[in-house]
Write a structure and sequence with these properties.
Distance between the termini: 73 Å
Strand content: 5-15%
Radius of gyration: 37 Å
Order of helices and strands: HHEEHHHEEEEEHEHHHH
Number of domains: 2
């Protein structure tokens, strides 16, 4: 398990720097090594306990996600440093998207009432009342946490800004910052209530808004976008679903066995009734038709039924080879 990345970024990062000789090359080498160590961490991502009743997951897309970039995190005149701040959970040290940020982005969409009506496919809904219902302390927005990375548990990478400053003709000096990589999956968690719309409809509305607007900084240049929105299930919820699915499968199997057994009994009953009326048949053709209807194409009469058929057979006179062949099928 790797170190606490938040601690590396906000505590260890500033240790060992010679602030009296800030432009010393050793500072540059040290800080670049520290940034490289931060982005190379592969923390063990443990399943987080859900707090709400509605949760879904979504995955970051290229170029990634910026969180807490407004936080102070800069050393003077050292190349290779990570100039932008970042938001980490204090305990786990992993990047988290604050619930207040999620709430803010979703609420910002309600300024455009026609957009919300289009997402809900409901032109008659009072969007202002819906906004009040959701955001005036009725529904709760929890932090979104990382639950999976498709980069072998690596979650951070680096990127660069290239500001031109006052002179657009001057070569820009790239400024380094860290980001959440693409293909990192977050779990979004809410405590939602039924109201003007159901909590499940709210979930879908929130997914659509986040997919359209994104989260974090620099969404206008592609950061903070998500894809693959889907229901998130905890290990316990998945186990319960698997248990329910197994019970349903066992119930279907039991029902199928019952239906087979019932069909078998019905066939035996039909055969029994057919055998009992065998001596009422006036012709062999009538008798053979009765036997066929009673036993089907692959006859399997019981010993008792065979005895009755044999008794009926022995009472017949002048049987042809063809007739004997038919009886043989039931008496073998």
């Amino acid at each position: 398990m790797g170190a606490n990345i938040g601690w590396l970024f906000y505590k260890d990062y500033f240790k060992g720097i010679d602030y009296h000789n800030i432009e010393d090359k050793k500072n540059e080498i040290l800080i670049q090594r520290k940034v490289s160590n931060i982005i190379s961490q592969t923390p063990k991502i443990q399943e987080d306990t859900v707090l709400g009743n509605i949760h879904f997951q979504a995955t970051t897309t290229y170029p990634g996600l910026l969180l807490g970039s407004g936080n102070a995190h800069e050393l003077p005149h050292i190349e290779g440093q990570a100039i932008l701040g970042f938001h980490f959970d204090y305990t786990t040290g992993l990047p988290v998207i604050q619930g207040s940020s999620i709430k803010g982005v979703i609420r910002s969409a309600f300024v455009h009432q026609d957009y919300i009506k289009e997402l809900l496919d409901n032109d008659d809904l009072d969007i202002k009342s819906l906004e009040d219902e959701i955001f005036l302390n009725n529904d709760i927005f929890f932090d979104a946490v990382i639950v999976k990375s498709d980069k072998n548990n690596k979650i951070l990478g680096d990127d660069y800004l290239a500001p031109h400053g006052d002179n657009p003709l001057k070569n820009p000096k790239p400024l380094r910052f860290i980001k959440v990589l693409p293909d990192v999956t977050f779990m979004f968690d809410f405590q939602l209530n039924d109201g003007l719309i159901s909590k499940d409809t709210k979930r879908k509305l929130f997914e659509n808004i986040l997919e359209d607007l994104g989260l974090g900084a620099k969404t206008n240049v592609g950061y903070g976008r998500f894809e693959h929105f889907s229901t998130y299930k905890t290990k316990k919820e998945q186990e319960e679903d698997d248990k329910l699915a197994q019970q349903q499968q066992e119930q279907r199997k039991a029902q199928q066995l019952k239906e087979i057994e019932d069909a078998k009994k019905a066939k035996e009953q039909k055969a029994k009734e057919g055998i009992e009326s065998l001596f009422d048949c006036k012709t062999l053709d009538e008798a053979f038709k009765l036997l066929k209807e009673s036993f089907g194409k692959v006859p399997k009469p019981t010993p008792e039924q065979k005895a009755i058929i044999k008794q009926y057979h022995d009472k017949q006179k002048n049987l042809s080879k063809k007739d004997e062949k038919v009886f043989k099928k039931y008496l073998k």
